[in-house]
Design a protein that fits this description.
Oligomer: single chain
Order of helices and strands: HHHHHEEEEEEEEHEEHHHH
Number of strands: 10
Number of helices: 10
Shape: globular
Strand order of the largest sheet: 1-4-5-8
Radius of gyration: 21 Å
Largest sheet: 4 strands, mixed
Structural class: alpha+beta
Distance between the termini: 49 Å
């Protein structure tokens, strides 16, 4: 395990420190740093291993320990981006059921997700509705005791390998975001197909989904009619801070690699680390990581205390993902030509970090959230 002094920060309890150390030891034995060509098979294998290891229980259920989630994602990301992905998607994909599902839905799906026996997916984005969720076009109409889904979803993680999908569709109770409901659609349901598998720079299961006259029982609705947007936002609120934690894991891995390179690479009769320019770069990388970590674990701690973390989570995600991109880029630069060779740790990290600046709220969206929260608080203060 790399530098763990941050675990001594007052944000954590002893159980969090023990969790981080136990997971690091487990991941060292069970999680490969690289994966082969069959990403689907490896992702399924990682889900099973995480379930059998007991780690998925931290991601599933209504009472989520945000600090635990963040420490797990940071630790897994430091070992393997695909392992972090497998863990996070089990939580995100089943999160709506944890937060708003009926007792029957929770009993049917959550134990299997927790044990790694069923893979879940969160189907919110559409070709014309990413950051602007209110522009959603996928529709669901009620016909007696049946719901009929029509439309598409895209950029769906675990698309193609999931056993069930929580799908958000327009039901029309009210305009915009207030007329959206959530439904559980199981793989293999007639009228539901994987329209396209999407290849991205950091390979993981990703797909475009299509629904054509797809009929499911009304009992598959999650939460009340028209409350889907609220369910989606509550789910994302739980896991947004953990995206920042995953970015921290990538950044720490890059710094470890950079330190090893700086102390072993010899040039001009000294090591790379003896050059002041290298020292300045390493110092900036360490500063970026620690400042982001403080924001991440402040947000996680505050959420665990029951506080509102809309602004704090946005700050954490913005700082950690943008900062990790800078740290990893710096590590690639220190490796020189070797840094862009396929299969090198820093090259893999360079590909893996990029998406984190986009998904679960792009950097630009986080800037808007922070500013709006500030303006709202300022207005409330003036009114008081």
């Amino acid at each position: 395990m790399s530098d763990t002094r941050y675990l001594d920060w007052p944000f954590f309890e002893e159980r969090h420190r023990a969790l981080a150390r136990e997971l690091d030891a487990w991941a060292t034995q069970h999680v490969p740093h690289a994966h082969g060509a069959d990403v689907d098979a490896e992702c399924k294998s990682l889900v099973r291993a995480l379930g059998q290891g007991g780690w998925l229980r931290h991601a599933v259920g209504e009472a989520i320990d945000t600090r635990a989630i963040c420490l797990i994602r940071e630790t897994l990301a430091r070992h393997s981006g695909l392992a972090d992905f497998a863990f996070a998607m089990q939580g995100l994909g089943s999160g709506a059921i944890s937060l708003a599902g009926t007792p029957a839905q929770r009993e049917r799906y959550l134990p299997r997700v927790m044990q790694g026996e069923a893979i879940s997916a969160f189907a919110l984005s559409e070709p014309e509705a990413g950051s602007d969720v209110a522009a959603m076009q996928c529709s669901a109409r009620i016909e007696g005791d049946t719901v009929v889904l029509d439309g598409e979803k895209t950029w769906i993680s675990n698309g193609g390998i999931a056993d069930f999908y929580v799908v958000f569709a327009r039901t029309g109770e009210a305009p915009g975001a207030r007329g959206i409901s959530a439904f559980i659609v199981e793989a293999g349901t007639p009228g539901f197909e994987i329209a396209e598998r999407i290849e991205v720079i950091a390979p993981h299961p990703l797909a475009r989904l299509r629904f054509v006259n797809c009929r499911i029982p009304i009992g598959q609705r999650v939460g009340a009619a028209g409350e889907g947007f609220k369910v989606a936002m509550r789910t994302l609120d739980v896991f947004r801070t953990s995206v920042a934690a995953a970015a921290l894991g990538f950044a720490r891995c890059a710094l470890d690699a950079a330190m090893e390179r700086a102390t072993t690479r010899r040039m001009f009769n000294q090591t790379l680390g003896d050059f002041q320019l290298t020292q300045a770069k390493l110092a900036q990388m360490a500063l970026t990581i620690d400042s982001s970590a403080l924001l991440v674990y402040r947000a996680a701690w505050q959420r665990d205390q029951g506080g509102n973390v809309t602004r704090e989570a946005a700050m954490a995600k913005l700082s950690a993902t943008e900062g990790a991109q800078q740290v990893i880029d710096g590590a690639v630069q220190l490796f020189g030509g070797l840094g862009v060779v396929s299969g090198q740790t820093v090259e893999r990290l360079y590909r893996e970090i990029r998406a984190l600046r986009i998904y679960e709220g792009a950097t630009e969206v986080q800037q808007l959230i922070i500013a709006r929260e500030m303006l709202k608080e300022h207005g409330a203060g003036r009114a008081a």
